[in-house]
Write a structure and sequence with these properties.
Layout: H1 20-51, E1 62-66, E2 71-73, E3 76-80, H2 89-98, E4 102-106, E5 112-116, E6 120-125, H3 128-146, H4 153-163
Antiparallel strand pairs: 1-2, 1-6, 3-4, 4-5
């Protein structure tokens, strides 16, 4: 009677413990993959932005989340250091290493951010339904302002203080405050 086979091929099993250098290599490979993916996404958006194609995509529905947690809405994208330089072999090599690793992102409101890909944690997009809900909320807020109703919450606190020329309660004073 033949011996029973194990339920898996033991010759291809992965060891349960990896060395620290193996783990660091996997981590570095994943990070490089993410940076390359971001470069491709941002280069594609830069191309669309430069050609003026699909302007609705650049109304803030697409955004980047930085490592510090800030969301940067995309109004346009431009890669910096997008082209290689000529020169010595060392200069060409360095140029190739930094090509399209830094991007200038302009928000729909005109803010300008220059970001290296390693500072971008996530790529974010809003669904069409959510964009429409934001637009409806903005229209409702405009109608509320036009009707003379007072704003609510912190917006009320700051806007009413400014309208009345009074510093905020608590004596917060400084350049541009109050």
């Amino acid at each position: 009677m033949p011996e029973p086979k194990p339920p898996f091929d033991a010759s291809i099993s992965v060891p349960l413990q990896r060395s620290r250098s193996d783990i660091r290599q996997v981590e570095a490979t994943r990070e490089l993959f993410w940076h390359n993916l971001l470069r491709e996404i941002l280069n594609g958006l830069a191309s669309l932005s430069a050609q003026g194609e699909h302007p609705e995509m650049f109304d803030g529905r697409l955004g980047l989340i930085t490592n510090s947690g800030n969301r940067i809405a995309i109004g346009s994208v431009t890669p910096l250091f997008a082209c290689g330089v000529s020169g010595s072999a060392a200069q060409k090599s360095l140029s190739i290493m930094v090509e399209c690793t830094v991007f200038q992102v302009v928000t729909p409101d005109g803010e300008v951010f220059t970001l290296p890909v390693h500072e971008i944690r996530m790529f974010h997009s809003l669904s069409e339904e959510l964009v429409e809900r934001f637009k409806a909320a903005a229209r409702a807020a405009e109608q509320q302002d036009d009707a003379g109703e007072e704003p609510f919450g912190f917006a009320a606190f700051t806007s009413l203080s400014r309208q009345r020329g009074m510093p905020p309660e608590g004596g917060i004073v400084g350049p541009g405050l109050g």
